[in-house]
Amino acid sequence: MLDLNLIREQPEHVRQSLRNRQMEAGIVDTILSLDERRRALLTEVEALKAERNAVSKEIGRMKDPLERQAKIDTMRAVGDRIASLDRQVNAVEEELRAAIAALPNLPDPRTPIGKDESENVVVKTVGELPDFDFEPKIHWELGPALGILDFERGVKITGSRFYVLSGAGARLQRALIAYMLDLHIRQGYREQYPPFMVKSATLFGAGQLPKFADNLYHDAEEDLWMVPTAEVPLTGLHMDEILEERQLPLLYTAYTPCFRREKMSAGRDVRGIKRGHQFDKVEMYIFCKPEDSDVMLEKMLRDAEETCAGLGLPYRIKQLCTGDLGFASAITYDIEVWAAGLQEWLEVSSVSNVTDFQARRANIKYRPADGSKARLVHTLNGSGLGLPRTLIAVLENYQQADGSVRVPEALRPWMGGLDLIQPE
Q1: Which residue is catalytic, options 38, 161, 260, 361?
Q2: Is-catalytic flag, 135?
Q3: Is the peptide bond before 11 cis (omega within 30 degrees of 0)?
Q4: In which band, very low, low, confident or very high, does the pLDDT at 264 lie, cut at 50, 70 and 90?
Q5: Which helix (H) or strand (E) holds 383?
Q6: pLDDT at 120
Q7: Lesser CB count within 10 Å: N end or C end of the chain?
C-alpha cells in the first residue's frame, strides 16, 4: 500500500508511475478528492465537538432552568450532527482505504519502462542449450510413456489442468522440493512450514486482496483462503508486529502447494503441466531494513540462480518492465529455464523487492537500535523454484534417445541413488 502523504505531496509522480504501468491515473484524483472531503468533515466534527465541550461547561454554571434546557436542546442537535458527520467520516475513510489499496507499488527508477512482457529486458543467459542427436520429446509425451505422469486420472479425479505424478515422477517432485529447501537453508534461510490456508487479513497484507480475489480459492463459511503462494503466509508471520533492529534481516524459506484458479490465463498452456490450478513451489522471503533491501535483492537473485545451476539447467535472467511488473513489486527479475521439448524458456522464479508496500498493508515495523520511531520494514520474495516448470525442464533436458530420463546428480540423494528413470 502506498503512503497517503506521498500521494498528497507527489500526485504527478504517482500518476506517471501508473501510466508507466499501463494503468489509468484517474484514481489519484479520486483519492485526493476523498482525502479532501475526509479532512473537511473532520474539521467540522472537531469544531462541533469543541463547541459542545465549551457549552457543556457553560451549562454546568447556569442557574436559570429554562435557559439551561434551551442550551441542552441545542447541544442535543449538535450531538446528532456530530453523529451524522462521524458516519460520513467512516464511509469516506472506507472509500479512501479501498481506493489506496487498489494502487500498485511504484516502479523502482531502475525498472525499464515498457508496455508489456514483450519489452522485458534479458540481462544474461547462462549455460549451453542441450544438443540432441534425436528429436526431443515434450513432457506430456515423455511422462506418460515412462508411467510417471498421468493426465487421464488427474482429470477423472478433479478436472482439467490436474494430473497425477506416480512412482519415480512423484519421487522426482519430492526430490526437487527437498533439494531446494536444503540449498536455501545452506544459503542462510530458515525453513518454515506454514498453514496452506490463511484468513483475509493475511491475503490483504500480502497484496493479494482485494485485487486477485477472483483468482483465489475461498471457503466462504470459515473465511479461509487456499494460499496462491507461500509468500502470503510468510508475509503474515510478522503481521502487526514491531521487530527489533538486531533481528533483521530475517530470511525464510518454505514449501507449499499453491492454488490458483488461473482465470486470467484461460486458454493458455492447456496441455501438459506448465500451468495448473494446483502446483508446488519453494519460496524465499526476506524482512530487512530499507537501506539493506537492494543488497538482499542481489542475494536472493544469486540464490535462485544457484538453484538452477545446481540442477544443470540452462537459464536466463530477464528484468521486467513497468507494464509487466507485479502489483506489489517495485523491481523484479524473472529467471527462465530452457525446456528442450517445448523449445521455449519457462519462468521458474520471480525475484522481487516489494519495498515497504506489503509492510504498510500488514503493519510490520522494526524499532531502530537508537530508540527512534518505529519504521516500516522492506520485504522481498522469490521463487526458489516453481516446481511444475522446473520438473518439465528436468524431464525434457535430461531425456535420452530411448525415452529414459537421467536424474540430475544434485537430486540423486533424494532418489535413493536412482540415476535413470526408465519405463515402469
Answers
A1: 260
A2: no
A3: no
A4: low
A5: strand 378-386
A6: 98
A7: C
DSSP string, 79-124: HHHHHHHHHHHHHHHHHHHHHHHTSPPPPPTTSPP-SSGGG-EEEE
Residue 139's nearest CA partner among 160, 167, 169 is 169
141/131 Cα distance (integer angstroms): 19
Query: Beta partners for 255?
Result: 282
Identify the active-site residue in 329, 350, 352, 383: 350
* Pairing mode of beta strands 364-367, 241-244: parallel
**Tens-place pLDDT, residues 365-409:** 999 999 999 999 999 999 999 999 999 999 999 999 999 999 999
Query: Exactly one of 347, 375, 404, 406 is catalytic; which is it?
Result: 347
Per the annotation, the verdict on 39 as an active-site residue is no
How are beta strands 149-150 and 164-165 bridged, if at all? antiparallel
Per-residue model confidence as pLDDT tens digits over 61-104 = 777 777 777 777 777 888 888 999 999 999 999 999 999 999 99
Helices 139-146, 387-397: crossing angle, 10 deg rounding:
80
pLDDT at 11: 97
Q: Is 161 a catalytic residue?
A: no
How far is it, in rounded angstroms, from Cα 149 to Cα 141?
Answer: 9
| 288-183-332 Cα angle (round to 5) | 45
**Alpha carbon distance 342, 394 (integer Å):** 12
Residue 56: what pLDDT?
74
Q: What percent of the chain has pLDDT over 70?
A: 97
Q: Quick check: is 17 catalytic?
A: no
What gap in Å lies between CA 71 and CA 259, rounded to an integer?
Answer: 63
Q: Spell out a b/e string for 339-362, using b for 16 or more CB atoms within 10 Å of the CB, else e.
A: bbbbeebbbbbbbbbbbbbbbbbb
275 as an active site residue: the answer is: yes
Yes or no: say if 189 and 282 are a contact pair by the CB < 8 Å rule. Answer: no
Cell of 7: 500521494
In the block, cell 508411467 appears at 147
Coil, helix or strand for 285? strand
Does residue 187 contact residue 384 with C-beta atoms inside 8 Å?
A: no
pLDDT tens digit sequence for 204-233: 999 999 999 999 999 989 999 999 999 999
